[in-house]
Write a structure and sequence with these properties.
With 71 residues, the protein is mostly helical. It has three helices and no strands. The mean pLDDT is 82.
Length: 71
Amino acid sequence: MASDVHVIILPDQAGWHTTDKLKVPDNLPLVCIPAATSELNRAENVWPYLRQTILGNRVFKDTDASIKRVC
């Protein structure tokens, strides 16, 4: 990423997002969302939707079949 570009990343507080082992460039600050606020994490909203519309109350032959259904 170019050094004149500045991007803010909003990760949750998972250990792999907050570890000192994670090397984050100066122009890419991490601003962690508060704990227990799944509504702020857009990816968390995908699972209820999938359960209600695509995956719920169904039996799949195997993992590949469930992946195909989601795709």
